[in-house]
Design goal:
heterodimer; A: 242 residues; alpha/beta; TIM Barrel; 9 helices; 14 strands; B: 201 residues; Rossmann fold; eight-stranded mixed sheet; 23% helix
Chain lengths: 242, 201
């Protein structure tokens, strides 16, 4: 793959641990966040993405996040319960470069727009959770675990991008942890509709998957299992083979 | 020498501090011009939109300090991304006046076949030698994330270029001001070289 395309390890934070899920359920403990951040930093990854998936997360623990972020001398994006412009300011101040909005794209669009106005498009990433069911695509709301927009989701995604987002993550929830590859057809369709960098997440198991995603129109690839597990038995082993 | 990071609201001051500490130097984050010492080397980071940046500089009187009291021939100043853009006359991104310490305008990147923002790791093309780029090699990569670039009136002050549909300035100098369009504080060991070179100026 050309150096030009970013390869982004994505880490899921639950309470104070990094975990790996399957279809965003059944979290398995990976290790101490500070250690893991340090290892990925030393492996010189292109960029790191942290998604906070703590159940009923009411408030971010900024002191804790500051400690994790400080291990990272690389571009870092963070998503998870960013509910106010004060949260946005704090997250940037303690060292994140981009904020990821997911549920709040639908629940608090005004906050997303306000954030874009304050920090600029390049600092705001939209993450759309996509669930595929018999060739029918829906958007999944991770907080309330409900399906919304079960029709024409590509148009809905285009509408979200028009808020002024800097990047879009398409998160193939039904492929999370399945190692089945990304949904290339979906990537082909959506990438031509949006004018901002497209990142895909969910299902990657090989460099070949990365290449296929890029060739289908993605501008960057994100993955989790691929960077944290090794072998058939999924031994925890952090690696960064692009 | 004291290294002082100017914190004017929306900026990633802690990332800059982390990196300087990692290089092995102490530094402080300052909120007001009154905290500047005689031997201060200043760093102006920047994230976000042009008008918001100018508004925040004004909130803490940094605009007055930089325009009236700061001496670009005597004091070292290193700026990153928006921090650099704010020193220009104005920007296509906003309506407010810039600080006009460097003459030129900030313009939107040409799209061509590329997507905007320009985001990711890029090499530099060194145009002119300067101690700030000591030990920087052709294969070294730097992290860019921006939609606008600095179009300088004085082209000879460009030290390095990068490319996004067309070449744009990546490192510029004006007297003792150095500006980087990329984020050295997020460019790992390569960014460390730039910051260490600045400390050694």
């Amino acid at each position: 793959m050309k150096n030009y395309h970013r390869v982004i390890p994505t880490l899921l934070l639950q309470d104070r641990d990094f975990v790996k899920t399957i279809k965003f359920s059944n979290p398995r403990y990976l290790g101490d966040p500070i250690n893991i951040m340090r290892i990925f930093n030393d492996k010189f990854v292109d960029e790191l993405c942290i998604l906070n998936i703590t159940n009923n997360l009411k408030k971010n623990n900024f002191d804790f996040l500051k400690d994790i972020f400080s291990e990272c001398l690389l571009p870092l994006s963070y998503g998870g319960n960013i509910g106010s412009i004060e949260d946005v300011r704090k997250i940037f101040k303690i060292g994140a470069d981009k904020i990821i909005f997911s549920s709040n794209l639908y629940q608090k669009p005004e906050l997303v727009k306000e954030t874009i106005k304050e920090v600029g498009s390049q600092g705001v990433v939209g993450c759309v959770n996509v669930i595929e069911n018999a060739n029918n695509y829906s958007i999944y709301l991770s907080g309330t675990k409900e399906l919304i927009h079960t029709n024409n989701i590509q148009d809905k995604i285009k509408e979200l991008v028009d808020f002024g987002l800097g990047e879009l993550i398409i998160n193939f929830v039904s492929r999370d942890g399945m190692k089945s590859g990304y949904d290339y057809n979906f990537i082909k369709k959506i990438s031509t509709k949006i004018g901002i960098p497209l990142i895909v997440l969910g299902g990657a198991n090989s460099k070949d998957d990365f290449n296929k995603a890029i060739n289908s129109g993605a501008n960057a690839v994100a993955a989790s299992s691929y960077f944290v597990f090794m072998g058939n038995r999924d031994a925890v082993m952090l690696s960064y083979n692009k | 020498m004291t290294i002082s990071i100017i914190d004017y609201g929306v900026c990633n001051s802690y990332s800059v501090k982390n990196m300087i500490n990692r290089i092995g130097y102490p530094c402080n984050i300052i909120n007001s011009p009154s905290e500047i010492k005689n031997d201060s080397k200043l760093i102006l980071p920047g994230i976000g939109s042009f008008d918001n940046g100018i508004k925040n500089l004004k909130k803490f009187s940094w605009d007055i300090y930089l325009k009236n009291d700061f001496k670009p021939d005597k004091q070292h100043l290193l700026c990153f991304c928006l921090g650099m853009q704010l020193l220009f006359n104005n920007s296509e991104e906003g309506n407010l006046d810039g600080l006009a310490l460097i003459s030129g305008n900030v313009r939107k990147l040409k799209k061509g076949s590329m997507k905007i923002p320009n985001m990711g790791w890029r090499n530099l093309k060194l145009i002119k030698s300067h101690p700030i780029t000591n030990n920087i090699l052709l294969e070294d990569k730097f992290y860019f994330v921006h939609s606008y670039f600095c179009d300088l009136d004085e082209k000879h002050t460009v030290l390095a270029e990068s490319n996004h549909a067309e070449p744009f300035p990546a490192i510029i100098e004006k007297q003792k001001i150095i500006g980087c369009q990329f984020h050295p504080e997020k460019s790992n060991i390569y960014g460390m070289k730039i910051i260490e070179n600045f400390i050694n100026l």
